[in-house]
Design a protein that fits this description.
The chain is α/β, with parallel strands linked by helices. It has 3 domains: 78 residues; 138 residues, D-Maltodextrin-Binding Protein, domain 2 (3-Layer(aba) Sandwich); 93 residues, 3-Layer(aba) Sandwich (D-Maltodextrin-Binding Protein, domain 2), CATH 3.40.190. Helices cover 49% and strands 16% of the residues. The protein has 13 helices and 11 strands. The strands form 2 sheets. A 6-stranded mixed sheet has the order 2-1-3-10-4-11, sandwiched between helices. Helix 4 links the parallel strand 1 and strand 2. The protein is elongated. The protein starts with a helix and ends in a 7-residue tail after the last helix.
Length: 341
């Protein structure tokens, strides 16, 4: 029976009960035998009629209650489609989220502008969410790695050597076809031309354990018998700006960050020394990150350079692409036997 037919039938039944109820209340009995013997008996008859009315009325409402389910079946089937789709692709709540910390070679604002769009593309490709993180300076970044806080991190070669062993980070990628080189810069109008000219001068460095920007120049100074006064200024950008302004005579950096400086700063500087090349920075994951997630992120990074969109994301960090990394790639750094951290 349809909803309309059921409703009309129920209404007719209710009308009949109401008519009977009115008849019982108003009709005079034809014979004495039908006359209720007492007021309580009349109340009993009225109560029975009321019960019958309630039963029929509730049956009609129950029929009304079923109507929305029938009428909403098309909407119900359309809302099932997204549910089935979510079973095949993670919902917002199901996407696994991981922190990705970048060594603060530059200001936090600049690092975020360079890395956040790239990490978004990697996240979408890998099916996870990578959240950009950095620290105010390199020592604070080193402290977070020592505690194993970041899930993944972009760290210098010496950081990788140290925190692979002490905190459980494992390399998954590195810059493609690239060797990291330390440099020393001075103002273009200065008389400084080599490491030997730095003897007795104050020299700016990003941080004590900055691999190419601090440790390599200092190692060269030591091997050449050159003594300098070290001044740590927290980032590569700060080194270049301090030297460009004439505040400090010279400073240590790396080719990549020097090339990324605004021309109004870079044009005031000259490179007076360059180191040999070493395995560059590592992208490494903490051991708690699941192997399937690491593999997906690794695949996303190494494929970035294969599309014009990916190349555009790589350009701000001055990297042409990433390739898979393995722990043994940094054995050249281990051979230096650095013990700063």
């Amino acid at each position: 029976m349809s909803l309309g037919e059921h409703s009309r039938s129920s209404r007719r039944a209710v009308s009949g009960v109401r008519a009977s109820f009115a008849s019982l209340a108003q009709r005079k009995p034809r014979t004495a035998i039908h006359q209720p013997s007492s007021p309580s008996a009349r109340k009993m008859m009225l109560a029975r009629a009321l019960i019958l009315l309630l039963i029929l009325t509730s049956g009609w409402c129950a029929g009304c209650g079923k109507a929305p389910a029938t009428a909403s079946e098309p909407d119900s089937s359309s809302s099932t489609a997204p549910t089935a789709q979510r079973q095949n692709s993670p919902s917002v709540e199901e996407v696994r989220t991981y922190t990705f910390s970048v060594v603060p070679q530059q200001s936090a604002t600049k690092s975020a502008a360079q890395w956040a769009p790239l990490l978004k593309a990697v996240s979408e490709s890998a099916g996870v969410e990578l959240r950009f993180r950095t620290k105010k300076d390199i020592p604070e970044f080193e402290g977070s790695l020592a505690e194993g806080k970041p899930d993944l991190a972009y760290m210098n070669p010496y950081h990788y050597e140290v925190f692979h062993d002490s905190a459980g980070y494992e390399a998954l990628a590195r810059a493609k076809d690239k060797r990291i080189k330390g440099i020393v810069v001075a103002r273009v109008d200065s008389d400084l031309e080599s490491i030997e000219d730095l003897d007795g001068l104050e020299v700016a460095f990003p941080a004590p354990a900055a691999f190419a920007a601090t440790l390599l120049p200092l190692a060269e100074c030591a091997s050449s018998g050159v003594k300098v006064t070290k001044k740590f200024v927290s980032s590569h950008d700060s080194v270049y700006r301090n030297v460009a302004s004439g505040t400090i005579a010279a400073g240590g950096g790396v080719v990549r960050t020097f090339n990324a400086m605004p021309t109004e700063v870079a044009d005031q500087l000259k490179i007076i020394w360059t180191s040999e090349g070493f395995t560059p920075h590592a992208i490494a994951a903490h051991s708690r990150v699941p192997a399937d997630v690491v593999a997906a992120i690794q695949e996303a990074f190494v494929k970035l350079h294969e599309t014009p969109e990916g190349m555009a994301l790589l350009e701000p960090i001055r990297i042409k692409g990433f390739e898979r990394g393995r722990d043994a790639d940094w054995d050249d750094v281990r051979a230096l036997k650095l013990e700063q951290l």
